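Sequence in, structure out.
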Amino acid sequence: MTITIKTDFINEEEIKKSRFICHLKRISSEEEARDFIAKIKKEHWKANHNCSAYTLGDRQEIQRTSDDGEPSGTAGVPMLEILKKKEIINVCAVVTRYFGGIKLGAGGLIRAYAGSVNHAIEAAGLVEFINQRELLLNLDYSLYDSLQRFLIDEKIKISDSEFLSDIKVKCFIDEEKVDEVMNLLTETFNGKISMKKGDSQQVEVEVLS
C-alpha cells in the first residue's frame, strides 16, 4: 500500500501560548525536500524553530529529521514517527514554532510536534496509489444496458464509449481484479462480449478514515 497526503497543507495551533504551524508538502526527491525546508525557514526566519521530517520511496527507504535547536529527539523524530505510523510516503513536514514563554518540557514537546503533524495530516486527507489496467470491451447494442448494470454492481466506471456498428467501451479496473472481472464478464454474458487488456495507469483514491 502506497499512501500520501491528498494535498499540500498548512495547519496552525496554539499550545501553552506557543504557535505551532505545520507545513506539509508532497515531494519526489531529497532536493525538493531540502528546498521546501529552506523556503519555510526563510519565510519564518523570526521563528524560534523550524523542525522537519520527511520520507521518500515506496517503502519509506529514505527518512530524515531535524530538531532545529529543540532538545535532541523531541521534534524531528516524533514528527517522523507519525509519518511512519500512517505509512505515508513522499511527504515533507516542517513544524514552525514561535515560543510563547512557557516551557513544555521534553514530553510536552514530543506531544506538541507529533500532534501538530498528526492534526495537519487529518485535515489534509490521504490518498492511496492504485495500479489499474484498461479493459477494452466490444459488444452488441442489445447487451449495453445489461453491461451498464453489471459495471455499476461491480463499482466500475466507464471511461469512454464509442457507438458504431457495435459498441466499444473502455474502463479501468484495479490491476489485481482484472482477470476476475474478465472471467465474470465471460460467464455473465456467455462469451458474447469480446475483451482485451489495454494500458495501465496509476490513480489516487481517497483513503476514508
